[in-house]
Write a structure and sequence with these properties.
The complex is a heterodimer of chains A (134) and B (1216). In chain A, 62% of the residues lie in helices and 3% in strands. Chain A is an all-alpha fold. Chain B is mainly beta. In chain B, strand 59 and strand 60 form a beta hairpin. About 1% of the residues of chain B have low confidence. Classes of the chains: A mainly alpha (134), B mainly beta (1216).
């Protein structure tokens, strides 16, 4: 369990830097879609590491990149929280779902959006009390 | 089944609005997003009208929109954040009237996802950088710059991610020319997620975080973060640099706070509340949108609360330090999603629901007696300011844009007996709700009607000089006289015009620069500017029967079919051509095109003859009066008109304005058919004929000007306008009585009108809403309409209106009374009298709820009513107000087999319903007898245990969906009697359809169930269902085996039972197979096949199979929550399908959507698109550039006009 939490590194003050102008062209030419990035990491790592470790690190990479990617110890609560947060984001993104809620609740759209944002913090109540052994 | 999707009316609700100088001229324009449509609007500062310049469907969800301008530039660009996983920058080209995608950078997956940016956009006010953010974690910054050729460049993205952080809003902070800075309202949820006690969640604070883009180091730094006291919902950036103190205003629940970094202390001011408000006192107040106005010397903000009150927010500064926030009540208007203050003093308001408005800001609210609230005023914690809402004082309404959103329900029927069916649309929310009747046609505004001494035959208008903007005379011809009216302040008869008044007139026009010509049966009268008159008399006994005139040419036809041609020479003299031409038959009509700018003459004359032909005759000096081409007609022609249309307004390099369009010859036939053919400008050949039936009378054609372009007014038993609008041809009927003759009209009051005659009246008309498909009549309602049914005998509608979070009239009155009493009681002994007076004033005060909103009662409070309405006059015949917290959700009108011939209305009502999580205190079915179709007589009330969400008549009984139960009820003396029940629908019955012994039930999330009623056993048995979960909102029967359904997410699906299904069940003698044979996972044993899947992109709330035009074929009509109306039509031939499939394929690759979303993946958003071809994409063919059109058409082995004809044909076959 704990190793999965290791993936989350503390955010440094400088969030990110990009290479200078010269290299930018190269970076920009790469497609940023996830498949390409995955393919790249796969190819880069197969040569270096054993397959077992490779799959493991790929998963870790996915889990850190895409919030909500499950792992062996995902609890029901975690899964549900992710489901809810994903849904709320979808509601806010799709204009007609927001309209739909706004009509049903008879609230302004800004209020519905605000309520959804507020619910994102803890959509399913507090987490379950975990035993400390993991 | 293969279907073709056509949008009849695009969505009308606005989700975002931005303003800027998108054309690069001084004029300010507005770009609005209507969900998946981008539209450019231009408010005309002189007339105060908002014109739509361009509408583009982007086939993606526009989630954010921003305008920016590079430092020192004069033109604004548009940044679009969408669901495409890309950032797109658009530029508007006024010359081509199109948006050009100048940058498109991919950064993530498509779809509205949690961590894929697109939800928020913020630009640096100096236009140096743009930040695009997701709701969680990801934020990307792009640097914008110019290259050597002054083109806009965009950098690769710089990341500003922070994990486990939710973002509420992002804005660019105005820091002048220092490093660009962005302010984010953020919340970190990591601690809350790891704290089982829930304490951390309760203590989680929102933070205001500043991100700085270091232009020198090319990276983004999280500069500074500060926890906030309360949760904010959005930010307003405060002008900085040399214009103001910089920083941001945080709008949060009940407070507005100013923040800036450095040693600036926070300045906080509560949001004032309405005095004596009926709202739930526990409710907070938030601002929903804002607009900033900035000039060189001052700036202010207009911020609107969720009640619709606008406050003018100003900041007091002391040496660049903000010391005070001041709020002043400005005005109250309907709640908006976005507001734009324009430099010309207009305020554009995009309403959440209901019509959009353009206001003029008449006063800035500086010097009135309205109290000003200030952050410096001492207040106790939790206390706030109060103000009194009042009607508009500072704003003046100048224009209104009709908005159907939200369409809650729609039915199409010809209740008014007009041949063409009308659309009855229940739309709006709360007190702004309306029932609108839509008819296909252009709205006509009548500017003037005046009676004439007799019945005139014809009317023309002429200008006095070619440079004149407005017409000078109206000439009206009678059987034996001609009347000349001069146009000035008033319209009055004149005799000094030079026109001959004692004879009827055949035609008249301005000739050359400043001369006039009048053609009458005995000759031609040429009136020079100095009133010298030249007359040409007809030879012998011959008279002129027909004529055609333009600015330089006159052609007349004498009795016997002889053509005489006159042309004006450079000295202004009208010369007869040496030869005359004898036609083979009598001439019935003639037409000349306008002289093209910069040329001497129009080269073609069109002549219609009795022998059912139209001939094109050359007027070129080299082959003058030689026939060029001929077209045979199915009937005798009545009228001809050559116009140049379809050109976009273009300005060439020299700066000369002109249009490049095609020449069209319009032919009106005696049998009421209009033909439109393309006239080749070189050879005079006729090609590409389009046919349309207009009405029962012979078609007369008149050339008029509409939005600076030529248009044709065609008159049969109905008048039609043929015009080109946004590169599409429209042929639209006018919603007006029959007219006989017309001409264009321009005056100061009415720059683009029509003067027309109808019997003995002269009318001046204006057509303002070009491009609008429907003409609307609206009747106000009280609460949100939910559903309605049509009483088949009287055509009256029974409508149910229900509002959550609302008080009924009775409760409102009671609460008001209570508050008034409290007011009096709270007052001291000596103030009693004053308090009583105030209380009385409060009780008498009645602000219209349509503008001021209705009081919000809190969750679980419902107000509802049942209304019987005559939809033609809009008269409410009867209405039943339900008690507080009773909510009507379903309605049906039916007859019972055991209750005679009376019609009954059943209304399904829920009591004390809570929306989320759903719970209900009980339900009822109210039964009313429709006495004579005019009155709702209460019969009885049947208690049920859950919400009755659906009712349908079924074989002289009623089928009711009570929660998840499906029941049959019969009429009883005291209440409805339960006869039969099925418990196997999984969640909640939302709709019931019946055909024969079959019942099709839609579930709230599990799609459709086919149920068979076994009469002998009195059983309802589910025998088939669907394989996909669908959150069905509405469904419609297509045939015995086929159902169309729509879901919340904007998909339309058609499912069909396989051919062997129905037989199996109908012939299963015991029914045990269907009853006991449970399929996989407890589903029904038989499954329906999906035959059509299509993502419309807007939530569909009504579906109906109907014909829209008389004699047309049937189509499936859908309406969406955003106000869109569209149809799905079947292909009749395999060839057509093949053609459109290929066209769609080529369009996808040649003309990819503007928002960056892939078209195919958008239409396959939730389910892969199946068997539907997107006509909206195909019709974009017409807005492509000509060379692209050509290449696509070549791939299809056709010419571009053939392709457009195909597109037009399929549209007109089913709709308009």
């Amino acid at each position: 369990m704990s190793e999965h939490f290791l993936v989350r590194t503390a955010t440094p003050e400088v969030v990110a830097t990009r290479p200078g102008k010269e290299q930018e062209q190269k970076v920009a030419s790469l497609d940023f879609s996830c498949t390409n990035i995955l393919a790249k990491t796969c190819l880069g790592q197969i040569t270096k590491m054993t397959d077992r470790y490779n799959i493991h690190s790929q998963l870790e990479h996915l889990q850190s990149k895409y919030i909500g990617t499950g792992h062996a110890d995902t609890s029901k609560w975690e899964w549900l929280v992710n489901q809810h947060r994903d849904s709320y984001c979808s509601y806010m993104g799709h204009f007609d779902l927001l309209n739909y809620f706004s009509v049903a609740e008879n609230e302004s759209k800004a209020r519905v959006r605000f309520n959804l944002m507020e619910k994102m913090l803890q959509p399913c109540g507090p987490p379950l009390d975990k035993p400390d052994d993991s | 089944m293969f279907l073709y999707n056509i949008t009849l009316q695009r969505a009308t609700g606005i989700t975002h609005a931005i303003h800027g100088n998108f054309s690069g001229t001084k004029m300010q324009e507005i770009v609005v997003s209507r969900g998946k449509i981008l539209e450019l609007l231009r408010p005309d500062a002189n007339t105060g009208k908002v014109h739509t310049l361009l509408t583009v469907e982007v086939f993606g969800v526009v989630r954010s929109l921003m305008a920016f301008r590079l430092t020192g530039g004069t033109k604004d660009y548009i940044v679009v954040g969408s669901d495409s996983g890309r950032i797109v920058i658009l530029e508007y080209h006024p010359s081509k009237n199109m948006f050009e995608k100048i940058h498109q950078e991919t950064f993530g997956k498509s779809g509205c996802r949690r961590i894929v940016p697109g939800q928020f956009l913020a630009v640096d006010p100096k236009g140096r950088a743009v930040m695009i953010g997701a709701i969680e974690k990801q934020k990307l910054v792009y640097i914008l710059n110019r290259d050597a050729a002054a083109r806009l460049t965009i950098s690769s993205p710089l990341e500003a991610h922070k994990a486990n952080t939710l973002v509420y809003h992002v804005v660019g902070v105005d820091v002048g020319f220092e490093n660009p800075m962005f302010a984010c309202l953020e919340m970190d949820y990591e601690e809350a997620d790891n704290d089982p006690t829930g304490e951390a969640a309760a203590n989680t604070q929102q933070t205001l975080t500043f991100y700085e883009l270091d232009l020198g180091l090319n990276h983004v730094v999280r500069k500074y973060s500060e926890a906030l006291e309360e949760h904010g919902n959005f930010l307003i950036t405060v002008p900085g640099g040399s214009d103001g103190p910089s920083g941001v205003l945080i709008c949060s629940e009940n407070y507005i706070t100013y923040k800036n970094f450095g040693d600036q202390p926070d300045i906080r001011c509560p949001i004032p509340r309405r005095r004596n408000d009926l709202d739930d006192p526990e409710r907070g107040m938030i601002f929903v949108c804002s607009a900033t106005h900035k000039t060189k010397s001052m700036f202010f903000f207009l911020a609107q609360t969720e009640q619709g009150d606008i406050f003018k927010v100003t900041l007091e500064t002391d040496e660049e330090m903000v010391t005070e926030i001041r709020l002043k009540y400005f005005d109250t208007i309907p709640v908006a999603t976005a507001m734009c203050v324009l430099k010309t003093g207009f305020l554009f308001v995009a309403s959440e629901f209901g019509n959009h408005y353009l206001y003029q800001i008449a006063h800035l609210g500086d010097d009135d007696d309205e109290p000003e609230f200030s952050s410096a005023m001492p207040l106790e914690e939790g206390d706030t300011f109060f103000f009194q809402p009042r009607p508009l004082k500072n704003l003046v309404l100048v224009d209104e844009q009709e908005n159907l959103s939200p369409i809650m329900s729609c039915q199409i029927a010809d209740l008014a007996n007009e041949d063409t069916p009308q659309l009855y649309v229940a739309c709006g929310r709360g007190p702004k709700s309306t029932l609108r009747v839509l008819r296909h046609g252009l709205e006509v505004s009548e500017m003037a009607v005046s009676e004439l001494p007799g019945n005139p035959n014809a009317v023309w208008t002429v200008r006095r000089h070619i440079e004149d903007e407005f017409d000078a005379y109206i000439i009206v011809s009678f059987v034996n006289a001609t009347l000349v009216l001069s146009i000035g302040e008033t319209v009055e008869e004149v005799t000094d015009s030079g026109f001959l008044g004692t004879t009827p007139t055949l035609s008249c026009s301005l000739l050359g620069e400043d001369a006039l010509v009048q053609v009458y049966p005995d000759g031609i009268r040429h009136i020079r500017a100095d009133k010298r008159v030249n007359e040409w008399k007809t030879p012998g006994k011959k008279t002129i029967v027909r004529c055609a005139v333009n600015q330089r040419q006159v052609v007349i036809a004498l009795t016997g079919g002889e053509l005489v041609y006159f042309e004006m020479d450079p000295s202004g003299q009208l010369n007869e051509y040496t030869e005359r031409k004898e036609m083979s038959a009598d001439v019935v009509c003639m037409s000349l095109a306008n002289v093209p700018p910069g040329e001497q003459r129009s080269r073609f004359l069109a002549v219609g003859l009795v022998d059912n032909t139209v001939r094109i005759i050359s007027l070129d000096p080299s082959d003058c009066l030689q026939p060029l081409s001929m077209q045979a007609l199915p009937a005798q022609p009545e009228s001809l008109c050559i116009v140049e249309m379809g050109g976009v307004e273009k300005q060439d390099e020299i700066g000369e304005k002109g249009t490049i369009g095609f020449l069209y010859l319009n032919i009106g036939l005696q049998n009421g058919v209009l033909l439109r053919t393309v006239l080749d400008p070189i050879t005079g050949d006729l090609s590409d004929t389009r046919t349309r039936y207009l009405g029962s009378r012979p078609v007369k054609l008149f050339r008029v000007k509409m939005q600076g372009q030529d248009a044709v007014l065609a008159m049969s038993s109905r008048s039609w306008l043929s015009y080109s609008y946004q590169s599409r041809f429209h042929l639209t009927p006018l919603s007006y009585e029959t007219l006989e003759y017309a001409s264009g009209f321009a005056s100061e009051q009415c720059p683009e009108g029509i003067v027309a005659i109808s019997t003995n009246t002269l009318r001046i008309l204006a057509l303002e809403k070009l491009g609008a498909v429907f003409n609307q009549v609206a009747f106000p309602l009280q609460y949100t309409p939910r559903k309605f049914v049509i009483h088949p005998e009287t055509s009256h509608l029974i409508l149910i209106e229900t509002d959550h979070n609302a008080y009924t009239e009775a409760t409102k009155a009671q609460r008001k009374q209570q508050m008034a009493e409290e007011m009096v009681e709270a007052a001291g002994e000596d103030e009693r009298e004053l308090a009583a007076e105030m209380a009385a004033a409060f009780l008498n005060e009645n602000l219209p709820e349509a503008i001021f909103g209705s009081p919000k009662a809190g969750a679980g409070q419902w107000a509802s009513l049942v209304r019987l309405i005559n939809p033609i006059q809009g008269l409410t015949l009867d209405q039943v107000q339900l008690e507080q917290n009773e909510a009507a959700f379903s309605v049906a009108v039916c007859r019972f087999h055991n209750a005679g011939d009376d019609w009954y209305v059943l209304v399904g009502v829920a009591r004390d319903m809570i929306l989320n999580p759903r719970s209900v205190g009980g339900g009822f079915i109210y039964t009313y007898r429709l006495a004579g179709g005019e009155k709702l007589e209460f019969v009885h009330k049947t208690p049920v245990e859950d919400v009755p969400l659906a009712i349908a008549p079924f074989q002289g009984r009623a089928l009711v969906g009570v929660g998840k139960l499906l029941r049959i009820y019969d009429m009883g003396k005291k209440k409805l009697l339960r006869k039969c029940e099925n418990k196997h629908v999984p969640n909640l019955v939302t709709g019931i359809h019946t055909i024969g012994q079959r019942v099709i039930v839609s579930d709230v999330q599990e799609s459709l169930f086919w149920v068979r009623y076994r009469r002998n056993e009195n059983q309802l048995i589910i025998f088939a269902d669907d394989t996909c979960p669908r959150w069905v909102t509405t469904a419609c029967l297509l045939d015995y085996d086929t159902m169309a359904s729509a879901d919340k997410f904007g998909n339309i699906t058609i499912v069909r039972l396989p051919p062997n299904t129905s037989d199996d069940v109908d012939e299963d003698p015991t029914g045990n197979k269907a009853l006991w044979d449970r399929g996989l996972l407890n589903g029904a044993s038989q499954k329906a096949d999906v035959i059509v899947n299509y993502h419309v992109g807007e939530t569909i709330l009504s579906l109906q199979k109907t014909t829209l035009i008389p004699g047309g074929s049937e189509s499936l009509v859908y309406t969406t929550l955003s106000g869109g109306i569209g149809i799905l039509v079947p292909f009749t031939s395999h060839e057509d399908h093949d053609f459109f499939q290929h066209l769609e394929m080529h369009m996808r690759s040649e003309f990819p959507p503007m928002g960056g979303r892939d078209h195919l993946s958008f239409r396959s958003y939730y389910f892969p698109v199946k068997n539907v071809i997107d006509g909206d994409l195909c019709e974009q063919f017409n807005s492509m550039e000509p060379h692209k059109q050509k290449s696509v058409a070549e791939e299809l082995d056709r010419t571009p006009p053939e392709v457009s004809k195909k597109l037009e044909d399929i549209r007109t076959r089913y709709a308009f």
